[in-house]
From TrEMBL:
Name by which UniProt lists this protein: DUF1146 domain-containing protein
InterPro entries referenced in this protein's UniProt entry, alphabetically: DUF1146
Keywords: Membrane, Transmembrane, Transmembrane helix
TM helices/strands, residue ranges: 9-27, 47-69
Pfam families referenced in this protein's UniProt entry, alphabetically: DUF1146 (PF06612)
Length: 79
């Protein structure tokens, strides 16, 4: 029982990091220089990191929830 919890925790951490990395890669296609001030480099980098974490976390939570729901589908037919 505890090993299953540990495996799910490890899977969640890996999925979160993967989707954050994919989000970082995808956000590099956007041109943020038009939206931000030219003298606020540090603030722009922090915003970029926070956007990456926020979007990556939302997408990975969706993926993990979908995975859990898919695992629970067989219980519909067991009465």
């Amino acid at each position: 029982m505890f090993s299953a919890i540990g495996q799910q925790a490890l899977l969640s951490m890996i999925v979160h990091l993967c989707f954050i990395a994919v989000t970082w890669w995808a956000l590099q296609a956007l041109n943020f220089q038009k939206l931000l001030r030219s003298n606020a480099v540090l603030q722009a980098r922090v915003l970029y990191i926070l956007l990456t974490i926020a979007i990556g976390s939302v997408v990975s939570n969706f993926f993990l929830d979908y995975l859990v729901f898919a695992k629970q589908l067989p219980y519909i037919f067991n009465q």
